[in-house]
């Protein structure tokens, strides 16, 4: 049976093919029977999946992140397509899979983004701030992961290379916005944007599907990022032959700790400097805009409206209204 990409799935399609397992949960029906509710996907999109008459054993056999083989059919449910699985089994050997079909990758040129990153942060004027940033840039293993990691599990830029793509977008925005506010410390904003999500390289796993690592679950990228900044600052101080200014280190770490804006969204503290506030706004601008673009581009039966998106508390209007000659 020929593979059908998620974006091409239609009502009544029969499928038997591999998917990336995005999430799984064991549910109970009104008659007290177990079922698996999951989200699966490939490089073109994601779809909700239900496997009825499940068991605890069949659920436990599925990976928390990885690939599964599903046999089933596509059905319309409450106006949206879903995959009803007759069988859903773990794929233990992903080497036989074509990962280009199953895992979404950035469409941007990675070497060009890497070069642009170095170009932008390479223009920092503050000697000590530049020394801290250089410790990260010179960490070859970390930067290799930085170029591969997704920016999130499933919210925005949730694809291989997404973290680098998201970071470049933020830096480019900062170069446009900061000159509008001469009293803003642009160096601090640039460094903060580069480092705000740096620890997602350790928070997330992305070799076989996307998941949280133990470190990610127990510590998280916000706190871990501030720890790394402290460590790199010590290394930078040794090479400079002088201690890093305590106030500089404090406000840089504050940007990372507060970049989610509100505690309910994962911030350790509220942003309390102009630079931290601007970093939060720029980060939110890029994340929300990309989420909206992805939502409108996703397939849906209703030509005019997307599915409901919690991040926007609404469905989104799909048609592009442009003036044409």
Helix and strand topology:
Layout: E1 14-28, E2 34-42, E3 45-51, H1 56-61, E4 66-77, E5 80-90, H2 99-102, H3 110-121, H4 127-137, H5 140-148, H6 162-177, H7 186-195, H8 200-203, E6 204-205, E7 211-212, H9 214-218, H10 221-240, H11 246-258, H12 274-297
Parallel strand pairs: 3-5
Antiparallel strand pairs: 1-2, 1-4, 2-3, 4-5, 6-7
Helix pairs in contact: 3-6, 4-10, 6-7, 6-12, 7-11, 7-12, 10-11, 11-12
Written overview of the protein:
- The chain is of the alpha+beta class and 325 residues long.
- It folds into two domains: 6-100, OB fold (Dihydrolipoamide Acetyltransferase, E2P), CATH 2.40.50; 104-293, Hypothetical protein af1432 (Orthogonal Bundle).
- Helices cover 41% and strands 18% of the residues.
- The protein is built from twelve helices and seven strands.
- It has helices spanning 56-61, 99-102, 110-121, 127-137, 140-148, 162-177, 186-195, 200-203, 214-218, 221-240, 246-258, 274-297, and strands at residues 14-28, 34-42, 45-51, 66-77, 80-90, 204-205, 211-212.
- Strands 1-2-3-5-4 form a five-stranded mixed β-barrel.
- Helix 3 crosses helix 6 and helix 6 crosses helix 12.
- The longest helix is centred in the C-terminal third of the chain and has 24 residues, at 274-297.
- The radius of gyration is 22 Å and the shape is elongated.
- It starts with 13 loop residues before the first strand and ends in a 28-residue tail after the last helix.
- The model has no long low-confidence stretch (mean pLDDT 90).
